[in-house]
Amino acid sequence: MGYAQLVIGPAGSGKSTYCSSLYRHCETTGRSIHIVNLDPAAEQFDYPVAMDIRELICLDDVMEELGLGPNGALMYCMEELEDNLDDWLTDELDNYMDDDYLVFDCPGQIELFSHVPVLRNFVEHLKSKNFNVCVVYLLDSQFITDVTKFISGCMASLSAMVQLELPHVNILSKMDLVTNKRDIGKYLNPQGHVLLSELNQRMAPQFFKLNKALIDLVDQYSMVSFVPLDLRKESSIQYILSQIDNCIQYGEDADVKVKDFDPEDIDD
């Protein structure tokens, strides 16, 4: 069985930075992971690229040949990937062992994980190849500055959860850049009545019923929660990784390793 992280989130949320930091952390701890680039517009990487969608199709070539803009060309590239799941992707996956750990660095176009079926079909293909997959959704912590933005972030994350139907770990990235962490802390373990009160203060009375419905969705059903990530702290990276490993049951089917020992050592 293989293991995989699908790293998604809005543009600029720190997905590639997360992937490079995760790679360095695993390299330091002696753990092997492979980072896969699924962004046809990417140009530079801070990590070794194990697989690269640009070997299949390149954004600049699509823009030049078809006369598309950046967003339209990227969607075309991702649909080309979808059409080549049984060919290009399968050939690439055959290069890895059953217990290998892959991390897929995805583009930031929100439609890819909100309603377009490309990533859903991509995930289904991974599962058919016996991969346990977890979605890692990154949201810029500097975006969460008030309750309206927090609810917006929750709804975007929930949309991805419904679309992909996979275990999710939602991360507040760039915590190392937050100056006042108290403003963020209240959104890590939000109290429904407090959020509703703040939301009603910011919006007209005709939206009060809608506000309550949104807060109930976040609060009563515990659908969305976020874990802070501070890349300056190895303990923060390790905690995030342990949460993901638990979701995909990493290592649970590994053989138990029994070390040789000298019976005389026990007597000592």
Largest sheet: 7 strands, parallel
Q: Give the overall shape.
A: globular
State the low-pLDDT regions, or none: 256-261
Note the quaternary state here.
Answer: single chain
Strand arrangement, largest sheet?
Answer: 3-2-4-1-5-6-7
Description:
The chain contains eleven helices and seven strands. The longest helix is centred in the middle third of the chain and has 18 residues, at 147-164. The protein has a seven-stranded parallel beta sheet, sandwiched between helices. It is globular, with a radius of gyration of 21 Å. Helices cover 47% and strands 15% of the residues. β5, α6 and β6 form a beta-alpha-beta unit. With 268 residues, it is an alpha/beta fold. The model is unreliable at 256-261 (pLDDT under 50).
List keywords for this structure.
268 residues, alpha/beta, seven-stranded parallel beta sheet, 47% helix
Summarize the structure.
With about 270 residues, the chain is of the alpha/beta class. About 45% of the residues lie in helices and about 15% in strands. α2 (about 60-65) crosses α3 (about 70-85), α3 runs parallel beside α5 (about 120-130) and α8 runs antiparallel to α9.
